[in-house]
Write a structure and sequence with these properties.
Length: 257
Amino acid sequence: MRRFRFRTLCAIAHLVVFATVVPVSAALSVPAPTPEVPKEMTFKGENNLVIEGLFYSAPQTPAPTVILLNFRTRWSDWAPMWSTRGFNVVAIDLLIYNVGGSLDATIKQDVNDILLVMDQLNSDPAVIPHQFALIGGSLMGGDALVTCSKAPDCKTAILLSPTPTVESEYSEDPMVAMGNRPIMIVASRGEGIIADTARDYAKRARGYHLLLIYDWGFHATAMFYAHPELVDTVGDWLVTYLLNRRGSPLPPSSLVF
């Protein structure tokens, strides 16, 4: 039955196409939409590291800026969607997963490098200074938390499948250091200890927070493929807590299963 309906619809569409006469000039006058092409950028990191990044410009600048942590090209499916909502979006590469050596030392440098990227973006004329959000997944979720807790310029953090990093080595609990700044935390039940970490972060949050625990899903940024609506949920959160537009449907604090 499905196959019959599908073939019938195709036949109808075929007839409609050929029954409708569209002047060539009119058809050519409507340009096809072009995808957002980000600008390549570099930043200076610790130990003479060159940090590569992609800059997706907001429709109007200067604008607040969202920094996406690590694997700059892997954010290309979602970065343009967030930039169209009024943000500069900058995806950067970091050392984690890209070099060998001590994991703790690498993560500590990554945290410092993120701070340096924010500092350099503050002088960019397209950027509203001191208005940043950090988004990271897995170990980068942990780094987003630690970095945001250390940087007053970071107004909110979004953690996807957050994996604790070296936060225990810092003198202050990052959730405490976040103060009343809003934080969004996403995980799925199947992630086990990571889901437990997400719940623990939510319990320790002192400001507005949103905890999303899915019954199923993938890990970190793969959550966007498993739950496409999450892209808009992130966008709504950024509009509310980075653009400070309170018309978002998101509650200030909730637990979703």
